[in-house]
Amino acid sequence: MNHHEYKQFDGLGLAELVRKKELHSRELVEAAISRIEELNPKLNAVVHKMYDKALDTANRPTDTGVFSGVPMLLKDIQQEVEGESITHGSKAYKNHRAVIDSEFVKRVRKTGTIFLGHTNVPEFALMGITEPKHYGPTRNPWNVNHTPGGSSGGSAAAVASGMVPIAGANDGGGSIRIPAAYTGLFGIKPTRGRTPVGPTVGRVWQGASVDHILSRTVRDSAAMLDEISAYEKTNAFSPVPYYGSYLEEVSKPLSKLRIAYSVQSPLGTTVDNDCKAAVLEAAKLLESLGHYVEEKDAPVDGRKIGSSYITLYFGEVGASIASLKGVLGRNATIHDVEPSTWLLGLLGQSISASDFVLGLREWDFAAIAMEEFHETYDLFVTPTTAAVPAKIGELALKGSEERLIQLVSRLGLGRVLKKSGMVEQLVEKSLSRTPFTQLANLTGQPAISVPLGMSSNGLPCGVQFMAARGREDLLFRLAGTLEQTNHWIDVKKNVSFNQ
Q1: So what's the pLDDT on residue 498?
Q2: Cβ(294)–Cβ(415) under 8 Å?
Q3: Cα separation of 436 and 381, whole Å?
Q4: How far is 242 from 58, CA to CA, in rounded Å?
Q5: Could you give phi then psi for residue 472, rounded to 5 degrees?
Q6: Which of 27, 159, 235, 255 has its CA 20 to 30 A from that of 457?
Q7: Measured between alpha carbons, how far is 145 from 150 in angstroms, rounded to an integer?
Q8: Where are the alpha helices (DSSP H) in 8-152?
Q9: Pick the catalytic residue: 85, 90, 102, 151?
Q10: Residue 421, pLDDT above cutoff 90
Q11: For this structure, is 155 an active site residue?
Q12: DSSP classification of residue 438
């Protein structure tokens, strides 16, 4: 199978070829390896390779599993494979190997996929770009001078460039949807608790983070969610049960929906015209399909949502740095992590327990308000991001900023920074490009990014759809409908990176 043929199929399509014995799974694995070896030096999407194991597995194929024989990559955080490197994008974990498969990996393996390695992430998956100092930046296959987003940026670049049809991802504040928007892919953040987090933890980021995949087609994502979304005894959260087939939902017709949309940033910050235009065109399309569409903002305080998210962010980073003692055998220092990570950890240490709990309460206020909102509106639509992909290095800390962080650390001024108003400035600076995605993480709702627009500089724009908790079925049915229109950006036809 040559490269052109290989990248034209989605995961289910490749599995069908294997099932019909038109191709052997080893041929698929070899094609994927060849494509990774050709493209990865330019994109830096894959940071850990498991080729020998993959080829060995391909030599012993089974016909069971919806993705039997299909090559796949995993994300270098939370998706552990026993005995393999898992670094969280950090040099602090450079010698770390997983002692057990994550439950996500166990369930995905049962679908018949063959793991080829792990993809690049920002340190601790903290950023909406993928530029860790430990591995260097991942580049967008639409334009290698730009970011593919983050934190699942390596997976997005791998899927968009055709290295693999699907790749593991997770989303704690937009980390599936942002890279999907930046690279022309489909991505869903499922309802809180829908996908596994165990076996060693019961929640990730207090339930804000959910694992799934990035894919080129809606049906691949739906089929995978069918396979991995079952009760997990260690999971702290249990979503509304769903007893149907998400894959079947993709091809079902939509009933008439009531849809609200907004193109205004919940932070009151700027939204690029290209990102607005994608939503406005989507609204027109939905109206032409017979749905009721109305411009209306979400019934939440965007600033409070941003602030409560950043409070979580600081606290979790502080805890992650403290946990490094178990990895390093000593307390972590500023030299073990990136300066921006260390700063976030300092701010995490300055947050009181009551501040953290008040932030969590804000999640529940927002969740209740959104559940009431969805009694009137089936869907809420926004841009996925407020800006097109930044250039590589554009958002990196300046040397003077890194030196300031070192000074703050040496003098122990974390609490002073918090009182100075710096937190509020960080909320705006860090979320102004991506202010739309965090709401669904805090409320636990499912949300998708679909490739429905292009910017003036030739990069994709995503449109985000949110539904009530437990309604992934509605989102898949909607996405399946939109995928059949000429508004859908087909990444297989548009990315000519390999030419």
Answers
A1: 42
A2: no
A3: 10
A4: 33
A5: -60, -30
A6: 159
A7: 15
A8: 11-19, 25-43, 51-58, 103-109
A9: 151
A10: no
A11: no
A12: H
154 touches 119 (CB < 8 A): yes
In order of start, what are the domains of the chain with their CATH numbers? Answer: 3-255+447-494 (3.90.1300.10)
Q: Are 310 and 427 in contact (CB under 8 A)?
A: yes
Report in angstroms the alpha-carbon separations of 259 from 253, 292, 441.
16, 6, 20
Q: Is 429 a catalytic residue?
A: no
Task: List beta partners, residue 140.
Answer: 143
Active-site residue among 175, 229, 340, 430?
175
Confidence of residue 60 (pLDDT cuts 50, 70, 90): confident
Closest CA to 69 of 2, 9, 4: 9
Q: Assign 38 to helix, strand or coil.
A: helix
Place of tokens 């926004």: 382
pLDDT at 344: 87
Strand partners, 75: 119
pLDDT higher than 70, residue 410: no
For residues 423 and 59, give the distance between their C-alpha atoms in angstroms, rounded to a whole number.
54
The distance between the two most distant Cα atoms of the chain, rounded to a whole number of Å, is 66
In whole angstroms, give the CA distance from residue 227 to residue 224: 5
Q: Tell me the pairing of strands 460-466 and 114-119.
A: unpaired
289-295: list long-range contacts, CB under 8 Å, 24+ apart.
289/254, 289/481, 290/256, 291/254, 291/256, 291/257, 291/258, 291/259, 292/256, 292/257, 292/258, 292/259, 293/259, 293/260, 293/261, 294/258, 294/259, 294/260, 294/261, 294/377, 295/260, 295/261, 295/262
Helix axes 422-431, 302-323, angle to 10 degrees: 100
Tokens of 449: 């990014």
Helix (H) or strand (E) holding 261: strand 258-261
Q: How many residues does the chain have?
A: 499
The question of whether 251 is a catalytic residue gets the answer: no
Q: Both tokens of residue 311? A: 């409070």
CA angle at residue 492 from 487 to 494, to 5 degrees? 65
Which three-class secondary structure state does DSSP give residue 49?
A: strand
pTM above 0.90, yes or no: yes
Give the active site residue among 49, 75, 276, 418.
Answer: 75
Confidence of residue 1 (pLDDT cuts 50, 70, 90): confident
pLDDT of 34 > 70? The answer is yes
